[in-house]
Structures are given as C-alpha cells and as structure tokens.
Amino acid sequence: MRQTKRYPLSGENSLWQLYRTVSFFKVCKNFFFIQLGRYTPSMRLKRWIYRVFLRMKIGQHTAIALMVMPDTMFPELITIGNNSIIGYNTTLLAHEYLIHEYRLGEIKIGNNVMIGANSTILPGVTIGDNAVISACTLVNKDVPAGAFVGGNPMQYIK
Fold first, then answer.
1. How large is the average pLDDT for residues 83-96?
2. Beta 85-86 vs 155-156: how paired, if at all?
3. Would you put residue 47 in left (φ > 0), alpha (ψ -120 to 50) or beta?
4. How many CB atoms lie within 10 A of CB 99?
5. Which string of b and e fits 36-57 if b means at least 16 CB within 10 Å?
6. SS3 assignment, position 129
7. Taking the model in full, what pTM does it have?
8. Which of 97, 45, 48 is nearest to 71 (CA)?
9. 60-98 burial string, b = 16+ CB within 10 Å, else e?
C-alpha cells in the first residue's frame, strides 16, 4: 500500500495552485539541477548534484542513467540505497496533483535494486532490497525484497 499524505484544497484544481504548495524558486532551482543531472554522463557527478542541490538521499555506487527524471517539486522525498540501478528515462514521482487535493509520499528504494528503463515510480512506494523492476513498469504499490515485478499495472512475476 502506498503511503501518501493528502492535502485537500478548494477552488481551482491543485496543479493550478501549485505555487501555494511549493515555492516557485525551489521548483526553478530543482528544474535546473535535474536537467543538468539528466544529461550528465558521470555517475559520480550526477549523484553529487542530486545529493547537494536536491537533498536526495543516494547510496554509494548507485547508478542513475541518462534522462532519469526525479521529482521536480519534492526531490528530497526520494531515497535510493547502495549499488542500485535506475534505468534510462525512469520517472520518480513524490507528488500527485489531483482536482481537489494533492498528495506527497516518500519513495524508498533499497540496496541492490534494478529498475528497468522507462519505468514510473509513484509517490509513497517502497521497493525492497534486491528487487528487480522490468522495463516500462508502473510501480503503483510496494515491492517486497527480492521480488521480480513488471507491467502496467505492475504484477508480480517471481
């Protein structure tokens, strides 16, 4: 079960009210450093940018591939363990803006996790150690340690 915190809003849809929920300058700063990191071929430099400027928690020897898209509004809610791989063009979302509310949830990715290319990780998801996520998977619920999952919606393969 995803662990998200709900924040109800009234009036216009929650995305229209975006800058009431997060600072415009924070989003601009995050956007700049995320774009820099997305195109940086150096794993060490990318990890350093994300740790220092976005306050993401990233373990040693974790490889974040080209074009990975961390959450632009709340990247500090993302934790990735040691020796994990985040595949090309994966999206890590720590927020959901809906019509009458927005939701925030931490993404916790364990050690030795492999996430295939073009996957989407939704807010409030925990992925256990040694899990494997196949390419193009929508991770919409927690993944236990050692599991092999894939698909849209995600299903347990092994």
1. 97
2. unpaired
3. alpha
4. 11
5. ebbebeeeeebbebbeebbebe
6. coil
7. 0.95
8. 97
9. eebebbeebebbbbbbbbbebbeebbbbebbebbbbbbe
Report H helices in 40-87: 43-54
* 106 neighbors 122 (Cβ within 8 angstroms): no
Taking the C-alpha atoms of residue 84 and residue 60, their distance in angstroms, rounded to an integer, is: 9
63: phi then psi, degrees, rounded to nearest 5: -105, 120
Share of the chain above pLDDT 70, in %: 100
Rounded CA gap, 50 and 1, in Å? Answer: 27
What is the DSSP secondary structure assignment for residue 77, as one 8-state letter? G
Specify the pairing of strand 95-97 against strand 101-104: antiparallel
- Mean per-residue pLDDT, 48-59: 98
C-alpha distances in Å from residue 89, one per residue of 15, 18, 35, 106: 23, 24, 12, 20
Bridge partners (DSSP) of residue 69 are: 91
CA R_g for the chain: 15
Percent of the chain with pLDDT over 90: 97
Q: Identify the bridge partners of residue 67 per DSSP, sorted by sequence position.
A: none
